[in-house]
Amino acid sequence: MTSWLRVSYIAVYHTLETLGWFAGRNLAVSQVTTKYFLWVDDDFVFTENTKIEKMVEVMEAVPELDVVGGSVQGNQFYFSILYEQGEEMDGGCLYRKSKGKFHSLPGYPECYLASGVVNFFLARTDAVQRVGFDPKLQRVAHSDHPYYLLNITPAPHIHIRHYSPPGTWAWQPASRQHAIRTNPDPARGLPRSTSFPV
């Protein structure tokens, strides 16, 4: 690190070279001194439904839990990592199942264990510092964190908005986004073969 600037509890670190997503995340998490930290992307917008206190409530009620994830634009992004036993000589298969989940949390039927969530989550600082992020990974930040070492739950009732400039597809409510993806309008410049990630 060549320098840092501290203004109103915000620290900005400048490095000599680009670290990559995960090495930068390790640097950020290494500076956290609180019990929990909230992870959000820089283009997320807090709304009246962004109930961080509800995330804390779940974390306090289930001390074995390491991460509570929310929903973005009303959409849930979570997955499970499953192991399928193979034959004795073949080995097994580890695979990721989108929208895969395990059992619900006691006392929180809307929350259930999963293997990973989107980049809107509250995490136990010590757990994430213990596991860390693989600094060799440069581009697949949402899904390649070693989530399988943590206890994670998506919390669909806790929301954040994803900012996009007005007039773009992501600025629309989730139901309108679905309509745009399934019935693109060539008059808006969206060819029928266009596919949009949510």
UniProtKB/TrEMBL annotation:
GO function term, MF aspect, one: acetylgalactosaminyltransferase activity
Natural source organism: Lates japonicus
Species lineage: Eukaryota, Metazoa, Chordata, Craniata, Vertebrata
GO terms classed as biological process: UDP-N-acetylgalactosamine metabolic process; UDP-N-acetylglucosamine metabolic process
Region of interest: Disordered: 174-198
Name assigned to this protein: Beta-1,4 N-acetylgalactosaminyltransferase 2-like protein
Matching Pfam families: Glycos_transf_2
Domain Glycosyltransferase 2-like positions: 10-80
InterPro entries hit by this protein: Glyco_trans_2-like, Nucleotide-diphossugar_trans
PANTHER family: BETA-1,4 N-ACETYLGALACTOSAMINYLTRANSFERASE 2 (PTHR15046:SF2), GLYCO_TRANS_2-LIKE DOMAIN-CONTAINING PROTEIN (PTHR15046)
